[in-house]
Amino acid sequence: MRENRPIRLIRKRQPEKIGASSEENAVPPHSEPSEREIKMVVSRWVSDHREQSEKFRSTFATLWQAGELHLNTR
Fold it and tell me: Are 25 and 14 in contact (CB under 8 A)?
């Protein structure tokens, strides 16, 4: 079993520009995604889920019909 080790955080360094003002180096505030972007992402998740579910159902049905799955009734 693996021993517990401390987590090491790795942060990306900000590039240093010579002669740049502090306003240029300021990180822009995080903007919230638009409703359209959220709907697009959720729609993609749903379609991926449906596709994966259909693949599973198809594979399971094929295995069941081929007789490779057996019920253990003891």
Answer: yes
Residue 49 CA neighbour count, 13 Å, CB half = 6
Give residue-wise pLDDT tens across range 8-37. 777 777 776 665 555 555 556 778 889 999
Q: What are phi and psi of 59, to 5 degrees?
A: -65, -45
Which class for 59: exposed (0-12), middle (13-18), buried (19 or more C-beta within 10 A)?
A: exposed
Question: What is d(CA 14, CA 5) in angstroms, rounded to the nearest whole number?
Answer: 28
Q: What is the pTM of this model?
A: 0.46
45: its two tokens: 């998740």
Sign of the alpha-carbon torsion through 61, 67, 71, 72: negative
**Distance in angstroms (rounded) separating the CA atoms of residues 15 and 8:** 22
